[in-house]
Structures are given as structure tokens and as C-alpha cells.
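Reviewers of the previous submission asked for a worked example of the structure-prediction workflow described in the proposal, so we include one complete record here. The input consisted solely of the amino acid sequence. No template or homolog information was supplied to the procedure at any stage.
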Amino acid sequence: MINCNFAPNERWDDAWLSFRLLFTPWKWLHGKDIKAASQKLSESFFPLYKTKLNFNFFLTGRSALYHLLHSLNLPAKSEVIVQAFTCEAVILPILANNLTPVYIDIESQSFSMNPIELEKKITANTKAIILQYTFGITPTHIAKIKAISTKYKLMLIEDIAHGYNASSQIKKNSKCIFVMSFGRSKALSSVFGGAIATSDQNLHNKLKSEIGKLKQPSRLFILRLLLYKPIAYVCKQTFDLVIGKIIHKLFFGTKILIPEITDKEKEGLYDLQLDKAYPNALAILLMHQIKKFKQMHKQRAKICQLYAKAINNNQFTISLSYLQAGNLSLLRFPLMTDNRQAIIRKGLQNHIYFGNWYTQTVAPKSLKLDKVGYKQGICPVAESFCARIINLPTYITKQEALKIMDNIAV
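From that input alone, the workflow returned the following C-alpha cells.
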């Protein structure tokens, strides 16, 4: 099985580590691994930064964003500018803080915020901009957007949940706020997890205070998270056989394992069940992934280059045309096609499961858009992309990538 959505990062060594952690419960709640992860993240994700970055960890990326916004003490109904072509994890923390998301359409190269549309929607009530690095791509107009945030004295929050191309920018003494995610479908996976990385010491102290008020998840909750990697790995290895399907139905279908998005979130509500501190057990899983980060980064870049050079015909539109000359390492490779359903059907016949970020302007598809304040028609480029996009996996072998390219030629 080749799957863009299901446990894309998990390998045998990740599964084995998580399995061994099941038998060392004294390491689950507290330890030195969160502090160690802060140092390693700084070295791996932000090697060009001269200013010290402080890290505050939470159980999820949306919890991290929620507490970041909460710590700002913004007036009720203040506007936070976000892009369409995003997910509920960005929007629900805004709504939960009694703030108003304002949606901006995207540009077609990097699937990021259009700065012209951005400036049009800034009002006296606008307080912050959340700039999304979709698929791990540095926004095409990042310099312009930063200039706009400075001009209007708006807080700029950079959402690098999908990943970050460290070589794209050199920053020496600039202030910054990054939102990170370590969910199971992200560039680094500890099953759940998120962090705020910032050079602002006052903000770091506020977030530290917020974390001090949070409870740790229960041991049963942590147990269910630790089961994810070994079960997901076995399931992927045997899914094409009967046993893999049985495992999937037993553990995932019955929700013995905690789902990535809860039912409450699918209804458009922030779920306090996931608003917890980050346990040490997940930091151990994260540290293991960070150690492999350079190898994972290189493999994703290699596969992205393979896709960009091979997929070149009139049937498809690759918005990232500059990939052919670049060395981008993307979490997923975005591809536009007017023949999406046929490609998906053919893939399923050959045990290939393409990604679906995003088939709705605020994903997932089951989310009612009126719950998150989005009105159909306000962001036409994003809506057009949602109707045509599929994602190709990037942390796979060359042989798997060639199989995928054979299958998209329908």
C-alpha cells in the first residue's frame, strides 16, 4: 500500500521505539526529552537563525495556536487574517478565542496568501496574520506580506505545520513567531504534538505560564498514542493482505486509537480533550524523528524532483513549475488535474491512496463551512484548486514514485 494520508513517516524503527516505550511508563509524563527536542529542533529547522528561539510544547498544533492567541489578550471579535485552502486546525483556535477569521484568497504558485487581496481586507479591527507554508513551500510573496504586516503593525504568525525550507531565508535579529505541528501526517511525527517557536522572550514567558495551567493527558490516552506507530506500521505492511484490513478495522474503525481529528472538531468546535500539555513520551518519539530529519528531507526533495521532471503534459498543471529547477522538500507534492476521480479510482485498484489536501477551502470535507465563517465564492482561486487537486506522497522510494506516475497516466 502506498498512502499519502496514513502514517506517511512511520518506519520499522519508529514502530519499534514506540512499542518499547509501552513498557517504560515512568518515562511517559516527565523527563528531559522536551528540553532536548527544543535544542535539536532549533539546530535542524532554524540553522540560519542568529537570535535564540524559545520553544513551548503542547499536545497538538491547534492547542499551541489556541494558547498563542489567548496569551495576546486581543479584544473580542478582533480579526485574524488567514488564507482559504486551509484546515480546521487553524480556524477553530481562532473561534475558540472569540476572534474572527478573515479569509484571503491564494496565489497559484505556492498555494499561499495573495498579498493584494490581503491588503484589501485589512481594517482597524485586524490584529494578526497567520501566514501558511502550504505543503512546506515558502510563500512566493513572503517579503511583501511581511512588509504589509509591518506597515499596519500586525502580528505575523508563520504557520509551518507542513514543514519549512530553512535555506529560503536568512534571518539574523528579526522577531518571529512560528507555529509547528508534530501530528502523524506532518514532516516530523510524534503522533500528536505542536509547539510555538519564538524569539520574543515576553511571549515565551506568557506561553510558559499557559502550559503551567494545563494538565497532562491521562496514562490511558498516552498508551493509545504509543500504540499508533507499531499498529500503523504493521497495518501498512499487510494492508494488501486480509490481515492488514482486519487490523485497520479493529483499531482504526473502532477508534481504539485516537483519531487525528475528533468528531467534535468535525462539527466546527474546539475540542478541550486535546488541550493538554505535551508528555515526555511523545518528545522521545519526536527526538527520534529529528535525528532522521536530514535523511527524510533529502528523500522528499529527491522524489519531488522526480515528479516535477516526469509529469509534464497537457493533462496536468503543476502550479510549482519552479520545482524543476529547485530543491524543495515538500510534505506532499501538489498536482492539479481535471481528471481527479479517474486517477483516484485507478490508484485504488493498484493499492495507491492519493492525498486530499484540500478538497474544501477549510478542510475536512465533512466540516460545514458556515460553522467557520466561510462563505462560498469569496475565494475563487482556492475553491478552484479544491476541485482539482490531488497530493502525491514524497517520503517513499523511487520505485514507488515510478509506480505512482504510471497510475496517474489515465
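The CA atoms of residues 303 and 396 lie 7 Å apart. We consider this example representative of the routine output the project will generate in years two and three.
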